[in-house]
Amino acid sequence: MIRGLLVGAILALVLGLGIGLGIGASGWLPEWLPVARQESAPPVAPVPPAELVVAPEGSEERANIDLFQRARDSVVAISTSAARRGLFGAATTEVPLGTGSGWVWDGEGHILTNAHVIQGASSASVQLADGRAFDARLVGADTVHDLAVLQIEGEDLPAPLSLAPPEPPQVGTKVLAIGNPFGLDWTLTTGIVSALERELPGDQAGAIRRGLIQTDAAINPGNSGGPLLNSAGQVIGVNTAIYSPSGGSAGIGFAIPAATVGRVVPELIRTGHYSPPTLGLLFDARINSAVNRQGLDGVLVLDVPRGSEAETAGVEAAQFTRDGRIVPGSVITAVEGEPVATLDDLLADIDARQPGEEVAVTFETGGKETTVEMALVAGE
After folding, report:
1. Is 224 marked active-site?
2. Cα 224–139–69 angle (5° rounding)?
3. Which of these is catalytic: 101, 116, 145, 194?
4. pLDDT bracket for residue 194 (50, 70, 90)
5. SS3 155
6. pLDDT at 23
7. Which residues are CB-neighbours of 209 under 8 A, at least 6 positions away?
8. How far apart are CA 46 and CA 207, in angstroms?
9. Mean pLDDT of 322-336
10. What digits encode the pLDDT tens for the residues 204-246?
11. Which domains, and CATH codes, for the chain?
12. Are strands 368-375 and 330-335 parallel, antiparallel or unpaired?
């Protein structure tokens, strides 16, 4: 009996709590419960808008901004087209070929870019940062150094960029690249000079492009022909190639150094082509590589022009036996006292000079060493 009363009392208590909790959830809470009071919150003061923080004077950020604003208008976007004849005698049409970058070289409307940017094109258009576009004519191109000059005619053209002195920059020098990667016009990327004197295969079989600047500034397709600038806004190189398994930037880009640009471009403007300096002697890359592998250091001379300074000095050409063996004649071992071990060494030295310049070339003939002063001549 008592047990039944206790169970009933407990059940009633539980039901009472349930009803009370249900009423509380419905809003009918006793007045003394503080959570039930509905009081107006005091007004919240509005948060003032944040002030735009401008890069402080003297900071690297401010330097980047200022340089881009100064150089931007002198960089151009280049688009090329190629003529394609339709099937069955249909009319010839112009089809888009590619895009690239370039920059204003002088006040005569000359635009510098890469030779590969305009390769295969029948027409080219140059767009300025202000939106104006001009048809361009080809002034000259040098595929060995991958440089080309276009020209546009118009009023109030942008000021030219300044070419840096021919002395190579130091590794670690800050650089900025402006161009049109993937058609994204006037893009700025930054980095440093990662290395100097890099080599890449050229367009022609066996050709090598020497003396390139390596940079980690992001360079992508479309940056070709654009300027690589130092912190002073001078052009230290012309962006030309990337190393990338994927086709995008992998942090390894290459630029043609200012020294090469300064030699080649004036002649392209003056004559329409570039004639590299040579010694006037005949060499062969494959033959020389073969004799180098056999232990011969130097460059094998294959032909000596009659009446030349070299012939007068006793320089001899190599001979070939009937069974294909090579009998060395004279071998170039040094230029201006600097050792020459391979044909690449020789060409790199000569390419940095000008036709007409006198150089001291050391030959070894039959164990006898001779140094000859030779005037460089313009090649083909």
Report:
1. yes
2. 45
3. 116
4. very high
5. coil
6. 38
7. 144, 145, 146, 199, 200, 201, 202, 256
8. 69
9. 86
10. 545 678 899 999 999 988 999 999 999 999 999 999 988 766 6
11. 69-151 (2.40.10.10), 162-271 (2.40.10.10), 277-378 (2.30.42.10)
12. unpaired
Distance, in Å, from the CA atom of 147 to the CA atom of 240, rounded to the nearest integer, reads: 9
* Rounded alpha-carbon distances, angstroms, from residue 111 to 135, 188, 221: 12, 19, 19
Token pair of 125 as six digits: 């258009």
Q: Retrieve residue 28's tokens.
A: 């009918």
**pLDDT band at 203, cuts 50/70/90?**
low
What SS3 state is found at 69? helix
Long-range CB pairs of 153-157, under 8 A, 24+ apart, other chains included: 153/109, 154/109, 157/104, 157/107, 157/109, 157/128
Active site residue 284: no
Cα–Cα distance measured from residue 177 to residue 229, given in angstroms and rounded to the nearest whole number: 6
pLDDT in tens, 273-305: 998 898 988 888 888 888 888 888 899 899 888
| Number of alpha helices (DSSP H) and beta strands (DSSP E) in the chain | 7, 22
Pairing of strands 326-327, 319-320: antiparallel
Beta bridge partners of 286: none
Per the residue annotation, which of 74, 101, 110, 146 is the catalytic one?
A: 146
Please indicate whether residue 110 is annotated as part of the active site.
Answer: no
Q: Which two tokens stand for residue 196?
A: 């100097």
Structure tokens at 362: 């050391």
The catalytically annotated residue of 79, 101, 194, 224 is: 224
